[in-house]
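Repro:
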Amino acid sequence: VQLQASGGGLVQAGGSLRLSCAASGRSFVSRATAWFRQAPGKEREFVASISWSGIITDYTGSVKGRFTISRDNAKNTVYLQMNSLKPEDTAVYYCAAGRGSLGGSDSRMYDYWGQGTLVTVSS
């Protein structure tokens, strides 16, 4: 599975962005997928995950109610809709595909990683 993240950019606080993660490989549709992020000088952290079916989602507390993860298996793509962005959301965002089907916040559950896309939120 190869992953290509896109959609990052510069946005003002309160604005919105939608990230996309396009995957190659037929096994993608059976895998949970997640978004992680890494801010400058900080460790990588979990943002959101979605099960292979799209039914089960999970979010870190700081993005609940603002971010929505979704997937379109027909297009082999996972999305992260980010609303009400804050300067503390500034980071490189990575998508990852897991070896299991349900998802979760532990980065060790994910075998495949995209290259990252930079999100910068100005105050």
